[in-house]
Amino acid sequence: MKPMLAQDWDFTADPTGWLVSEKLDGVRAIWDGSRFISRNGREFPAPAHVIAAMPSGVILDGELWLGRGRFQETVSAVRRGDWSSLRFMVFDAIRPGSLLDRIAFLGCLSLPLFCEILPQQICAGEDDLDRLESEILEAGGEGLVLRNPASVYEHRRSREMRKLKRFCASEATVTGHDGSTILAEMMGVPFRVAGRGELPEVGAEITVSFFGLTDDGMFRHPSLVGVRDYE
Q1: Which of 149, 164, 179 is the last residue of a domain?
Q2: How many domains does the chain contain in total?
């Protein structure tokens, strides 16, 4: 089951009326009514008591999350099935109707304590969007997600769902090692990034953040976010 994915925000667009929420640095997960699965359909090893507490007959879209700046910890917890501190931050229900209809549906559900409906607020305009972004960044968050309140759920990357963040992140492939440095390739461009702890194997997929490109087309200040071995 493919989830709805975000395109980048178009800074020439008017954000007035769009719903805005924090962009969480967690692990995307879908509750399909009987299990948690990744955006690529891989089942996450959730404990039996977690499964038993979830509502049946509904499909929920959200993020498994430990908190800001704890992405790799979240990945590790999900992978080993330790959900003692994880929260499932729910931001949508996969069902017919507009986003506003689906959010209203979420509000009627009886969810367990480890589930939380992600707050979304209506944007009043560009100044309001700048203020919301500044508040999230100052609090240690990574950016915002904007959603068209009238949009239906699409199982693809949609222009009705947009991400706004000042730094970029993308998937790269590990091509080798040089001491504690990872050699990788992203978007056809080879680069180097400092490793952390045990280095990922050659051929592994990793997520790397960077602050745009230099004049000669290299990634500016690349940083390892995590190994994509959980999807």
Answers
A1: 164
A2: 2
Query: How many Å apart are CA 158 and CA 7, to the nearest integer?
Result: 6
Report residue 62 as tokens.
Answer: 């959200």
**Three-class secondary structure of residue 104 per DSSP:** helix
pTM of the model: 0.77
Give the distance, in angstroms, between the CA of residue 94 and the centroid of all CA atoms in the same chain.
17
Closest CA to 144 of 169, 161, 124: 161
Cα 225 from Cα 210, distance rounded (Å): 10
Are 160 and 87 members of one domain? yes
Amino acid type, 212 = G
Query: pLDDT tens across 120-169, in order?
Result: 999 999 999 989 988 888 888 889 999 999 999 999 999 999 999 867 77
DSSP 105-148: HHHTS---TTEEEPP-EE--SHHHHHHHHHHHHHTT---EEEE-
- For residues 90 and 29, what is the distance between their CA atoms, to the nearest angstrom? 9
User: 40: domain range?
Assistant: 5-164
